[in-house]
Specification:
317 residues, 2 strands, 2 domains, mainly alpha, DNA polymerase, domain 1, 15 helices
Length: 317
């Protein structure tokens, strides 16, 4: 168990607290990121403290090596080892702390001396055209909930938005005539998002069926609702959107665990398969680095398929 946070016990805890306050106040980092960095860095300080240490100078290459061995052997409540991906998040948080320490003239270990763990391989999940059509046609259009869900699915496949970005949309920010709007996405990066004609039409149909003045583009229509509820209380949550997508995927028997991110993958692969260039797709997805966008190329490069079909198996003839 990691100790409850109170007054910092040592120099390292104090510096971690200053760093977290810097992220919150100066960088305006999201509460979720603050929560995660707090978890990762206090795990580090707890481990350092367990070694009878607590100075900044105690964070050196040897102690980091030992800490990473500790992480690799750490288990969760189910007795399972934490994933390489989670270990990587701990390392990213540590490197961010060290970068800040160096920028503020503290004698810290150089962050580039800490390598990130090799990521675990994973398959890229996306829907083909027939599966997308089935999913988009899954909602019943006789109720306002069905109209809302239809609009949400159309917007996902039209824009490739992250679920948090879609949930945060307000109706006055979405231009249905120009079929475009601005998004402040991950890392506070701005981008322009474009709606298809179908997506704009279904948003308009949904808004026409509403008789409220709430600002969120997508709101709740079930459960305990009263006129006194605020915009944020009425706003549909990312978790609710995730559950809705899974419900429709089960309804039309799609053999993939469909999530909002799978729809984002489907948006990107559809563009690339149609011939869009990688840089444009990077801009539309809001990726900081094109290397992130390149994960799609191995499933969308038609030239590789042509080469495979032309040459595979010919050597034995």
């Amino acid at each position: 168990m990691e100790p409850a946070q109170g007054k910092p016990k040592n120099e390292l805890e104090r510096l971690i607290q200053e760093f977290l306050e810097y992220l919150e106040v100066e960088r305006d980092v999201s509460p979720l990121t603050i929560r995660n960095y707090t978890h990762y860095l206090h795990r580090l300080s707890s481990w350092i403290d367990s070694q009878g240490k607590g100075k900044l100078s105690d964070v050196n290459q040897e102690s980091v090596r030992q800490y990473r061995v500790y992480l690799s052997r750490l288990t969760n409540r189910q007795g399972e080892a934490i994933s390489k991906k989670t270990q990587g998040y701990h390392t990213i948080a540590l490197r961010s702390l060290l970068k800040w320490l160096i920028r503020t003239d503290r004698p810290a270990l150089a962050p580039d001396k800490i390598d990130l763990p090799k990521a675990e391989g994973h398959s890229l999940k996306f829907l083909n055209g027939e599966q997308v059509d089935r999913l988009l046609n899954a909602p019943s259009l006789y109720s306002i909930v069905g109209k809302r869900d239809k609009a949400i699915l159309e917007v996902f496949f039209s824009t490739g938005l992250r679920v948090s970005e879609l949930a945060n949309l307000d109706r006055d920010k979405v231009d249905l005539e120009r079929r475009e709007f601005g998004i402040i996405g991950k890392g506070e990066r701005n981008r322009i998002v474009f709606l298809s004609g179908r997506a704009a039409e279904w948003i308009a149909n949904y808004l026409k069926a509403r008789n409220d003045n709430y600002q969120p583009l997508f709101i709740r229509h079930k459960g305990k609702i009263s006129p006194e509820m605020s915009d944020e209380e009425m706003r549909l949550t990312p978790r609710s959107i995730q559950r809705m997508i899974k419900k429709y995927a089960r309804k039309v028997k799609i053999p993939v665990d469909v999530t909002p991110h799978v729809l984002r993958h489907s948006f990107a692969t559809d563009l690339l398969m149609a011939g869009a260039d990688l840089r444009s797709v990077q801009e539309m997805l809001g990726h900081k680095n094109i290397s992130t966008t390149q994960i799609y190329t191995h499933v969308t490069n038609p030239h590789l398929r042509d080469v495979h079909e032309a040459f595979h198996g010919k050597g034995g003839k």
